[in-house]
Design goal:
Strand content: 15-25%
Number of domains: 2
Bound molecules: S-adenosylmethionine
CATH class of the largest domain: Alpha Beta
CATH topology of the largest domain: Rossmann fold
Radius of gyration: 21 Å
Order of helices and strands: HHHHEEHEHEHEEHHEHEE
Number of strands: 9
């Protein structure tokens, strides 16, 4: 069979499976199997595909037609210009999460040797980006999932920051002891935030294949935000920041929860490219949680 024939058949299968961009996705999968750069698939159209390659390509196309995410099939997702390895044990990094990294880097701009904690690190996309963005930062990354931490460690090694991030298996902030001067300059987290009742309505790629542990967050989707807003202030140094990702429509409620703690002197919500309030940046007073 020729490359061009395989391409057309793959497009048809993915179109029938209602994949939104069947041509692009089929081409990504075929390029990965054939070992060609994407843009050369057209010029290589007359080349013969071996039976082994065709079988491997059809395995991936069939899995995609069953709505397995393209990123799990390719094993990678780009995040802030870095190729992050992904497996079904971790959430696929989303573009809006890059805003958390920007907000964190901004928060530590004037701090030498900042200490940053990434809670629910998953693939490690935030922790790795921060370690690369600030070579003098000490980064700690925590996740409750051991398989996720294995992926995060591999990503840190692959991007040359394996020795700069301490990975910890634990339940949110419980692994860290309070110190009178605070421990971290910033605590950043993209926690699970999907309300339990909305999980099954998510698109199949998310609902059927991404880890529930990375998504589900109780009845209103704010179980983790509540715990982080309560626990973070006593771990933050004076003037330190808590940076949290928010789901669509959660900003008002999270602002209220933040105010109820009485621990923060400023609260700011930043919008993503779609105009959704996506990131909460909350700051404790100069005396830390103890002094506000
Ligand atoms: C929404 S994902 C975020 C992953 C990654 N930081 C990102 O932005 O792509 C949430 C992560 O929190 C982790 N998690 C869930 N419950 C947790 C808990 N109680 N303590 C620590 N991590 C938890 C999940 O395993 C998952 O990796």
């Amino acid at each position: 069979m020729k490359v061009s024939t395989l391409r057309r058949q793959a497009w048809d299968v993915l179109q029938a499976a209602e994949i939104a961009d069947p041509v692009r996705e089929a081409d990504w999968l075929l390029a990965s199997v054939l070992g060609f750069p994407l843009h050369t698939l057209v010029v290589e159209g007359d080349r013969a595909v071996s039976s082994v390659q065709a079988e491997r390509a059809w395995t991936l196309i069939r899995r995609r037609a069953k709505r397995q995410p393209l990123q799990y099939l390719l094993g990678t997702q780009e995040f802030r210009g870095l190729e992050m390895a992904v497996t079904p044990d971790v959430l696929i990094p989303r573009p809006e999460t890059e805003l958390l990294v920007e907000a964190t880097l901004q928060a530590v701009l004037d701090i030498r040797g900042p200490r940053v904690l990434d809670v629910g690190t998953g693939s490690g996309c935030i922790a790795v980006s921060l370690a690369r963005g600030r070579s003098d930062a000490t980064v700690v990354a925590v996740d409750i999932s051991a398989p996720a931490l294995a992926v995060a460690r591999a990503n840190a090694l692959c991007h040359g920051v394996g020795d700069r991030i301490r990975f910890v298996q634990g339940d949110l902030l419980t692994a860290f002891s309070v110190s009178p001067d605070g421990v971290f300059d910033v605590i950043v987290s993209n926690p699970p935030y999907v309300p339990a009742g909305e999980l099954d309505a998510l698109q199949p790629e998310v609902a059927w294949y991404e880890p529930r542990l990375a998504l589900a967050a109780g009845t209103d989707g704010l179980d983790y935000h509540r715990r982080l807003l309560r626990g973070a202030p006593e771990l933050l140094k004076g003037g330190g920041h808590l940076v949290l990702e928010l789901g669509r429509g959660q900003a008002d409620q999270v602002r209220r929860l933040s105010q109820q703690t009485g621990a923060f002197i400023s609260l700011e919500c930043r919008k993503d490219a779609a105009g959704i309030e996506r990131v909460l940046v909350a700051r404790v007073g100069a005396g830390g949680a103890r002094g506000t």
